[in-house]
Amino acid sequence: MPEEGIVSPLPSQRALGDLVTDVLREMITGGRFQPGQHLRESQLADALRVSRGPIRQALARLEVEGHVELRRHRGAFVSTLTKADVEEVHTLRGAIERLAASRACTRMQGKGFAEMDAVLEQMKLVDTKPDPEDAALLDLRFHDIIYAYCDHVRVQRVWASIRGQIMVFLRARNASFPDFLEVGHIEHLELRNALALGDPQAAQDAIDKHISGAYERLKRLNLPNQ
């Protein structure tokens, strides 16, 4: 549970429910809370200096996203990563990202590829073992570009709904298998070059290869089945 003073008072210009959701999501994906940890509404409200209403609203949203489990008469708990979670999110991501890539490869043109190249340059400049969260953020930043240019609002909404869970998966994977220096830049560069062909089928094939490799690493994590 965060200590008093760690979190600054929340500004009033945005809906408190949205702000609290963003803060708690970031704390969960960043490892501030551990899997299975009890999230007590009163303590969260005190730490964030809000009433319990926005906390309750945020926890309900985070349950929908898969970050939190709400247990009857017991409260909210940080979700525990399982093999079933990884398999479900992986297959869903594979389906939407194949579609996103097949559309984005014909729409990105110069600006989109320049944005990818900027992220690739950041990956290339990593010369020491990166923090697991930093490596995951670079990874997701690259894939955000694909979704940004796919011109498909519903696909973008699905990506937004599972992005936080993928962040959790990548962070756990990077902590257990710190091979970002070996595979991070080169694998994403291969994907970028495939997208640059402007061929939807080539883009889908490249996504299949990229995501299947990531899934194989995730399956090596010592996770419970359910």
UniProtKB/TrEMBL annotation:
<dbReference type="Pfam" id="PF00392">
    <property type="entry name" value="GntR"/>
</dbReference>
<dbReference type="Pfam" id="PF07729">
    <property type="entry name" value="FCD"/>
</dbReference>
<dbReference type="InterPro" id="IPR011711">
    <property type="entry name" value="GntR_C"/>
</dbReference>
<dbReference type="InterPro" id="IPR008920">
    <property type="entry name" value="TF_FadR/GntR_C"/>
</dbReference>
<keyword id="KW-0805">Transcription regulation</keyword>
<dbReference type="InterPro" id="IPR036388">
    <property type="entry name" value="WH-like_DNA-bd_sf"/>
</dbReference>
<dbReference type="GO" id="GO:0003677">
    <property type="term" value="F:DNA binding"/>
</dbReference>
<feature type="domain" description="HTH gntR-type">
    <location>
        <begin position="14"/>
        <end position="81"/>
    </location>
</feature>
<protein>
    <submittedName>
        <fullName>DNA-binding GntR family transcriptional regulator</fullName>
    </submittedName>
</protein>
<dbReference type="GO" id="GO:0003700">
    <property type="term" value="F:DNA-binding transcription factor activity"/>
</dbReference>
<keyword id="KW-0804">Transcription</keyword>
<dbReference type="InterPro" id="IPR000524">
    <property type="entry name" value="Tscrpt_reg_HTH_GntR"/>
</dbReference>
<dbReference type="InterPro" id="IPR036390">
    <property type="entry name" value="WH_DNA-bd_sf"/>
</dbReference>
<keyword id="KW-0238">DNA-binding</keyword>
